[in-house]
Design goal:
Length: 165
């Protein structure tokens, strides 16, 4: 169709993009997100945080009051650190599960060769604070909380209306 495709490192775009449009697994009232249900959170965060305009499109089922109590927060980890990362996450109140591949014996492997731990909390957490705490754990590559670059969010409702936040 004549659309040029570039990587972030290509000289033509110099590490930044004009627009990123994506979905989210959960969206809270403050514009914080959980992303990474498809195990691509590292690349999604790189693109989102290097975009001049960042938009999220989702249906009303993705809009929640609190992140991480219903949809699991993905945490991308180095495989050899699994147990130590799990222990640290449990100290933060998370229940962790190693994400397993469907019809595959073993864990999901990300595009960058890492594993995903899915985390759920029985109580609401502050996603900004928790993102910082989890990111400091040795062996964590990336966290599925997106709290530093709030997108323009478009929520499609079942009555056909679209809410812009």
């Amino acid at each position: 169709m004549g659309i040029d495709v570039f990587a972030l490192n290509d000289r033509e775009i110099g590490g930044a993009v004009d627009l990123t449009i994506d979905g989210a697994d959960e969206i809270d009232p403050n514009g914080n997100l959980i992303k990474g249900g498809g195990a691509a959170l590292l690349l999604e965060k790189i693109l989102a945080y290097n975009s001049a305009f960042y938009a999220i499109v989702a249906d009303e089922t993705k809009s929640v009051l609190n992140l991480g109590t219903k949809f699991p927060l993905p945490v991308e980890i180095i495989s050899v650190a699994r147990k130590s990362v799990e222990n640290a996450l449990k100290k933060l109140g998370a229940k962790t599960t190693l994400r397993e591949g469907v019809k595959k014996c073993g864990p999901v492997i990300t595009d960058f060769g890492h594993w995903i731990l899915d985390c759920l909390w029985d109580f609401p957490v502050d996603p900004c604070e928790m993102e910082e705490k989890i990111a400091k754990i040795a062996g964590v590559v990336e966290v599925g909380f997106f709290t530093k670059n709030h997108p323009t969010v478009f929520i499609a409702h079942s009555d056909g209306t679209v809410e812009r936040r």
